[in-house]
Specification:
By secondary structure, this protein is of the alpha/beta class. The chain contains ten helices and twelve strands. The protein has two domains: about 110 residues, 3-Layer(aba) Sandwich (Rossmann fold); about 130 residues, Vaccinia Virus protein VP39 (Rossmann fold). The longest helix has 14 residues.
Length: about 260
C-alpha cells in the first residue's frame, strides 16, 4: 500500500492519479477537514510523530511514501524523512509550481526572508503602517513580538478552529480577517484597499497558494511585500514537479494495484 500525505491541491491531484491507476493508498492529513471521494483510497487524519508514524506504516504494510503536503509543513517533512530512513522506504515528493513573473519580484518593493522571525525583523526596518499577514493562523504566535507593538492584520481561513486559535493567542479580534485567499486579483486588491494595507507578508507558497495573484495585487495597489522563502526539503526525497512525472516515477517502481 502507498501512503499519501496531502491536505493540499497537490494531494488531491496525486489522489486522483492513484485512483486512476487503481492503486490502493492511505490519504493522510493532519485534520479531518477537506475530505473528498476516493475510489481506491481511504482517509486518515491526525498528527503523527516518529513513533506513531512508524507504527502506522508497519501496520498498513506501506511500501512507498508520497509527500504532497504543504511546503511549509516542515515538521512533517522531517518526520517523514527520519521514518523513511528507519524503515528503508522510498519517498516521492510532488512539488508545486513556484515559477513567477520576474516583474513581480525583481523590484525594491519586494523583499525575501528566510523565516517568519527574519521577516518580522525586515518589517521593523521598513516601518509600514498596516501589515497584512497572509501566512496562516499558525504564524500568529511566531509574529507576536511584532503585532504587540505594531499594527498588523492577519488573514485566516474562515474555520472556527482557526479563529479560536488566533483569539487564544491574544490577537486583536478586530484585526482578524476571516477569509480564504482568492484566485482573483481584483478580490485581493479590494481586500488590501478595504483594510488600508501598505505591506503584505506572505509565504513562498507557489501558484497553488496564489502567490502570483497576491503579488500582482500588491503591485497594482503600490504596496510592498515580504516573502518568507520555502524551506529546503530533505535531500533523500525524489522530487517530481507534475502529475505526469509522478505517474512516471510510480511506473519506474513497477507499482501494482
Amino acid at each position: 500500500m502507498i501512503i499519501l500525505f496531502g491536505g493540499t491541491t497537490e494531494g488531491r491531484l496525486a489522489a486522483g492519479l492513484l485512483d486512476g491507476m487503481s492503486r490502493r493508498y492511505l490519504y493522510a492529513t493532519k485534520s479531518a477537514s477537506g475530505c473528498f471521494p476516493m475510489s481506491h483510497g481511504e482517509h486518515r487524519n491526525g498528527a503523527l510523530n516518529d513513533r506513531t508514524m512508524v507504527s502506522l506504516l508497519a501496520e498498513r504494510e506501506i511500501r512507498l511514501i508520497i509527500d504532497a503536503a504543504h511546503p511549509f509543513a516542515i515538521g512533517l517533512h522531517r518526520t517523514i524523512a527520519r521514518v523513511a530512513g528507519t524503515l528503508s522506504l522510498p519517498v516521492i515528493r510532488l512539488e508545486r509550481d513556484y515559477r513567477i513573473d520576474p516583474e513581480l519580484i525583481d523590484t525594491p518593493r519586494v523583499r525575501f526572508a528566510d523565516s517568519l522571525a527574519a521577516a518580522a525583523g525586515l518589517l521593523e526596518i521598513m516601518k509600514p503602517r498596516v501589515v497584512l499577514a497572509a501566512t496562516g493562523v499558525q504564524s500568529v504566535s511566531v509574529l507576536r513580538p511584532y503585532w504587540t507593538e505594531h499594527r498588523m492584520k492577519v488573514r485566516i481561513l474562515p474555520a472556527e478552529r482557526s479563529y479560536d486559535l488566533a483569539i487564544r493567542e491574544g490577537f486583536p479580534e478586530e484585526d482578524i480577517i476571516r477569509k480564504a485567499p482568492s484566485c482573483s486579483q481584483a478580490e485581493e486588491e479590494a481586500t488590501y484597499r478595504l483594510h488600508g494595507i501598505d505591506c503584505l507578508l506572505c509565504k513562498e507558497s507557489g501558484s497553488s497558494g496564489f502567490l502570483p495573484v497576491k503579488l500582482a495585487a500588491a503591485k497594482a495597489c503600490g504596496i510592498s511585500a515580504v516573502i518568507v522563502r520555502r524551506p529546503v526539503l530533505p535531500a533523500t526525497f525524489r522530487t517530481v514537479h507534475s502529475v505526469a512525472a509522478l505517474r512516471e516515477a510510480l511506473s519506474d517502481r513497477g507499482e501494482r494495484p
